[in-house]
């Protein structure tokens, strides 16, 4: 579909570039681009312009789909929390006893769920943002509850809570430590906390 526009110079009609009148993926591209911008620049430096450029959409699209920059950030962080929680649950669902659950916890910490730098950067930004934005804070609480419930299939509530904190804590420390813990060391720590 082509859109006809008036030329400002000569008053004649010209055919403009092809316009996407129905772009159902645009809103999702904006959310994905917001996460990419946050990962690269941090929340404090994230702007409508940077998100629009990353999503390759007109700047006006952002205000069409979202009421404010805070709305975009909230939506992006809600998506991040949902994806991270789903990956966590999926890995734990493969466990069928406390020993395999311990291995799942080690995989979560040392594997691609938490060891990936982009995930860690976004998590730092998410925690800082959630501390000042109650809707996201509520989602974070739900995420922690879901994680603990998944762990509680195999461990008592206090151990589940300790493992949940350990998962994120080791990930954070490993991201900046000059001598990050390797998988073997992580396994020893998990075993000490989750004695079965």
TrEMBL record:
<dbReference type="InterPro" id="IPR001647">
    <property type="entry name" value="HTH_TetR"/>
</dbReference>
<dbReference type="InterPro" id="IPR009057">
    <property type="entry name" value="Homeodomain-like_sf"/>
</dbReference>
<feature type="domain" description="HTH tetR-type">
    <location>
        <begin position="24"/>
        <end position="84"/>
    </location>
</feature>
<dbReference type="InterPro" id="IPR041583">
    <property type="entry name" value="TetR_C_31"/>
</dbReference>
<dbReference type="Pfam" id="PF00440">
    <property type="entry name" value="TetR_N"/>
</dbReference>
<dbReference type="InterPro" id="IPR050109">
    <property type="entry name" value="HTH-type_TetR-like_transc_reg"/>
</dbReference>
<feature type="DNA-binding region" description="H-T-H motif">
    <location>
        <begin position="47"/>
        <end position="66"/>
    </location>
</feature>
<protein>
    <submittedName>
        <fullName>TetR family transcriptional regulator</fullName>
    </submittedName>
</protein>
<dbReference type="GO" id="GO:0003700">
    <property type="term" value="F:DNA-binding transcription factor activity"/>
</dbReference>
<dbReference type="GO" id="GO:0000976">
    <property type="term" value="F:transcription cis-regulatory region binding"/>
</dbReference>
<keyword id="KW-0238">DNA-binding</keyword>
<dbReference type="InterPro" id="IPR036271">
    <property type="entry name" value="Tet_transcr_reg_TetR-rel_C_sf"/>
</dbReference>
<dbReference type="Pfam" id="PF17940">
    <property type="entry name" value="TetR_C_31"/>
</dbReference>
